[in-house]
Write a structure and sequence with these properties.
alpha+beta, 6-stranded antiparallel beta barrel, disordered N terminus, OBAP-like, Histone acetyltransferase
Length: 244
């Protein structure tokens, strides 16, 4: 039994549902009632589902499939809730912010180091919008190829964590051979699920224009061979002012 659990943890982060009691009928009724009475406006602004892959900045051997539910705040800024699947039991494992090259160029150099470029991810066919025809997506893909993303993983389900543990981990985008290649079995599993060919999508995207310039401060690990790791340290608290 223990070996089976270890294998499950290695291939999918273990059980889909975290520890806890099953929801009661009263809780189900409560949730349904709340859905009718509240607007849930931020969630309703999520306008697309994209599936891709991400690598841990401090350990490129750890690679995960990511599902992004994206909302657009304006032409230069998108935000996405990141899940480990598109199933009803999907776990919220992180968040990614996506900005245009124009906004990226205005960031301080130290901040730019935390961001990754999207050109390779888009043009190679790793970033897909399941069940949406490529012809419909082309204008959006053209824009995304010029963007930069900052992605934080808050729940490392790939190592078997049943609950969100520890500090967030900075994630990076695949950049090709010897620069964060995605493991073939991960791509094959995703392609089978959605009945697609990532390779064929990459070939169909050859005509997408390359960004005129990808800022070398992005994809910092590519240029310097170093990633970023977040740790937790105790610190003196800033005292709060008296509150009436």
């Amino acid at each position: 039994m223990e070996s089976g659990r270890a294998a499950a943890a290695a291939h999918g982060g273990g059980e889909r549902v975290p520890p806890g009691k099953a929801m009661s009928m009263e809780q189900h009724i409560m949730d349904k009632g709340v859905q009718w009475l509240q607007s849930l406006k931020p969630i309703k602004q999520m306008s697309q589902h994209a599936c891709s892959f991400a690598l841990y900045s401090h350990d490129m051997t750890r690679q995960i499939e990511t599902h992004h539910y994206v909302s657009r705040l304006n032409q230069d800024f998108l935000q996405s809730a990141v899940y480990d699947s598109d199933d009803a039991t999907a776990r919220l494992i992180g968040v990614e912010y996506i900005i245009s090259d124009r906004l990226f160029e205005g960031l301080p150099p130290d901040e730019q180091k935390l961001w990754h470029s999207h050109a390779y991810e888009i043009k190679s066919g790793l970033w897909v919008n399941p069940r949406i025809p490529e012809m419909v997506l082309k204008p959006e893909l053209q824009n995304l190829a010029k963007t930069y993303g900052k992605c934080w993983c808050t729940w490392q389900t790939d190592r078997g964590d049943k609950l969100p543990m520890g500090p967030p981990a900075l994630m990076m985008s695949p950049q090709g051979v010897n620069m964060g290649s995605v493991k073939p079995d991960l791509i094959a599993k995703r392609d089978t699920k959605y009945n697609i060919s990532s390779e064929a999508m990459g070939k169909s995207r050859i005509e997408l224009a390359e960004p005129e310039w990808i800022n070398p401060q992005a994809d910092y690990w590519k240029q310097h061979g170093k990633g970023f790791f977040v740790d937790v340290e105790p610190t003196e608290m800033k005292k709060m002012v008296p509150f009436p």
